[in-house]
Design a protein that fits this description.
The chain has 416 residues and is an alpha+beta fold. Among the domains are: 136 residues, no CATH class; 131 residues, no CATH class. Helix 3 packs across helix 15, helix 9 runs parallel beside helix 14 and helix 13 crosses helix 14. It has 15 helices and 15 strands. This is Heterokaryon incompatibility domain-containing protein.
Length: 416
């Protein structure tokens, strides 16, 4: 297909749509069939978990009809109607497709956009661009030296790098922690849903995410780019976190942000097919971590929680009230079968937690729901999908339910 000829923008077309961007760059909107091939795994997951989503939405409609209007079942056709655009580079004047005119692979870039740009899809190897991080020459030297020592014992590393080198490692970690990408909810979401999620995720060469940062060159006014692996950053933090009181100075939200390396928050950690009676991991645990990140639209935290939980649902409403976000997530968890919000009906809220609290009142009126003592938890036990029977109706102010008996304690320190 000619790179200078643009066909109709109809997303159902079975041919790629190409638009020249100038120079050797082209924008390609892939065909419908190409999208089916690229996202077949995602479509299969939506189909596999449709029973779970249908049951959850059915409970929402029975208990809170007004809130249920903001939820939909996510189906493959909705995704197929969404345009998927890629940026391609070619110096021959057109995009060199194969005989079937399809794109078979792509590189996903995670970037903290300043504007409402289209989100990048996920791929097997993630590239993370931190344009607001600049390393000094000394920091780069220590990091490169450190990369050769990653498998050595701590005593050997400390004797080679010395205290000054550890300070440089600590400085690098702090710069990443203070970057905009590190604090944003959607960026954390991009990292979490990126495949694969298993021990292979930390394979240094095959799947480990790559950070791209700035570095000063010979002149303090001149910069170039520098790259390092996410696993390198993890090791650097482990070795330097106690330097100069670094661990004690770390705020709770930045410290928990490192839990992105924990498989327990993965949407791929649950059974591939879930329905009533299945065991699955906590929705509230995902929300607890997401709530510590920043988001321009507060209600987006609900969508992120849904995605990280692997629910085949979507949330369409938008609002900025963090108390409303907490109520919606708690109600969604109840509708799916997670009993934990029922244990928060008379707690006194914690005033030192990093997010807002409902506090047992809404607009001056008492509420059945309050945040848990000590703040939200990032480790919650598995629950049975559809395991709550006897709730009749609920709003932010009231809940009507039968006397419920739990087979096992809801509060537990174990995961399963």
């Amino acid at each position: 297909m000619s790179a200078t000829k643009r066909s109709s923008m109809c997303p159902k077309e079975d041919a790629p749509i190409i638009r020249p961007l100038g120079g050797s760059l082209f924008e390609v909107m892939v065909s419908r069939q190409n999208r089916i091939n690229l996202f077949s795994d995602s479509f299969q997951k939506l189909s596999d978990n449709r029973d779970e989503a249908t049951m959850t939405l059915r409970n929402l409609r029975a208990w809170s009809p007004e809130l249920a209007k903001s939820f939909n079942i996510r189906d493959p056709e909705t995704l197929l109607r969404t345009p998927f655009r890629l940026i391609c580079e070619s110096d021959i004047g057109y995009v060199p497709f194969d005989n079937e005119k399809v794109l078979r692979q792509f590189l996903a870039v995670s970037y903290c956009w300043r504007h409402d740009d289209i989100e990048w899809p996920a791929n097997g190897k993630l590239l993370i661009l931190l344009e607001d991080v600049t390393l000094t020459h000394d920091e780069v030297v220590v990091l490169e030296k450190y990369e050769d020592l990653q498998y050595e014992a701590w005593a050997e590393v400390a004797s080679i790098i010395k205290d000054v080198g550890l300070l440089h490692l600590s400085s690098i970690c702090q710069k990443v922690e203070n970057s905009r990408w590190w604090s944003r909810s959607w960026c954390w979401h991009e990292f979490e849903v990126n495949k694969p999620w298993s021990n292979r995720r930390h394979h240094y060469y095959a799947h480990n995410a790559t950070f791209i940062v700035n570095q000063y060159t010979s002149s303090i006014d001149s910069k170039s780019t520098y790259s390092f692996k996410y696993l390198t950053l993890q090791w650097a933090r482990n070795y330097s976190m106690y330097v100069d009181g670094g661990f004690q100075k770390l705020s709770i939200d930045k410290m928990l942000r490192w839990t992105i390396g924990d498989n327990r928050t993965s949407p791929y950690n649950d059974p591939p097919r879930r329905k009533a009676g299945s065991q699955r991991s906590s929705l509230l645990a995902r929300y607890s971590i997401v709530a510590l990140t920043k988001c321009s639209i507060a209600s987006d935290l609900i969508s992120i929680t849904i995605n990280l939980s692997g629910l085949a649902m979507s949330f369409t409403a938008q609002f900025q009230d963090p108390d409303e976000v907490f109520f919606v997530v708690a109600t969604l968890a109840l509708a799916c079968g997670e009993k934990r919000p029922l244990t928060w009906m008379s707690n006194t809220c914690s005033s030192n937690f990093a997010v807002h609290t409902i506090g047992g009142t809404i607009d001056g009126n008492s509420s059945w729901l309050s945040r848990p003592l000590g703040g939200l938890e990032t480790f919650c036990p598995y629950f049975t999908v559809g395991g709550i029977q006897g709730v009749h109706s609920l709003t932010r102010k009231h809940i009507e339910l039968d006397l419920l008996f739990f087979e096992t304690p809801v509060e537990t320190s174990s995961w399963k």
